[in-house]
Specification:
This protein has one domain: Alpha-Beta Complex (Maf protein), CATH 3.90.950.10. 31% of the residues lie in helices and 28% in strands. The protein has helices at 11-21, 43-58, 82-88, 91-97, 153-158, 170-179, and strands at 2-7, 26-31, 62-70, 78-79, 104-114, 119-130, 146-148, 151-152. Strands 1, 2, 3, 4, 5, 6, 7 and 8 form an 8-stranded mixed beta sheet that branches. A hairpin with a 7-residue loop joins β3 and β4. α1 (11-21) packs across α6. The longest helix is centred in the N-terminal third of the chain and has 16 residues, at 43-58.
Length: 181
């Protein structure tokens, strides 16, 4: 069995990575690092910087994930700033911003891998909609109002499920690639 280090403190990210990687006989080992994450409107810039810092600390092949959110009716807001915005905003704050607008929302999940020779990026975009009232308890503000396939991320988490099938996650693409290295 191969192992990959995942630099994160987010238990959701560990569950998603583990669900996809186990299909390729890859064990995901969580490593908690103190990484000063840059702020940028460019998710690729954030991810490359973050994975480079993680590799510098570990000196081992490592992956990080970074999620960028896009509300088209708000011209792409909040983008790469979601981590902070989700802590500042309550679900109702997001809903007030889109009250009479298109309620589509997307998130792009990015995985960045780095070893001594390369940085490799994997990305996948998921589309959903902002619902009218928060649903679910176990999630940040956006996870309680962003629905994918009829359920919010928080609702799925409350019942022990992932928000998507493991084969739909970008982790599946990463695991397939990594298993062939």
């Amino acid at each position: 069995m191969r192992t990959i280090l995942l630099a994160t403190t987010n238990s959701r990210k560990i569950r998603e990575a583990t669900a996809a990687c186990k299909k390729f006989n890859i064990e995901v080992e969580q490593i908690k690092l103190d990484i000063d994450e840059i702020q940028s409107s460019d998710p690729e810039e954030i991810g490359r910087d973050k994975v480079s810092k993680a590799f510098k600390q570990t000196q081992k092949p490592v992956v990080i994930t970074d999620t960028s959110w896009n509300i088209p009716s708000l011209k792409g807001f909040p983008g790469g700033y979601m981590k902070d915005v989700a802590n500042w905003f309550e679900p109702e704050d997001f809903l007030n911003l889109v009250r009479s607008k298109d309620r589509k929302i997307a998130f792009t999940e990015n995985i960045f891998y780095k070893d001594a020779k390369q940085i490799k990026q994997f990305s996948r975009e998921f589309w959903g909609e902002l619902i009218n009232k928060p649903r679910g308890k176990d999630g940040n503000s956006i996870e309680r109002i962003a629905a994918f396939g009829g359920k919010t991320i928080a609702e799925n988490r409350d019942i022990g499920k992932l928000s998507h099938d493991p084969e739909d996650y970008i982790w599946f693409d990463f695991a397939k690639w990594y298993s062939e290295l």
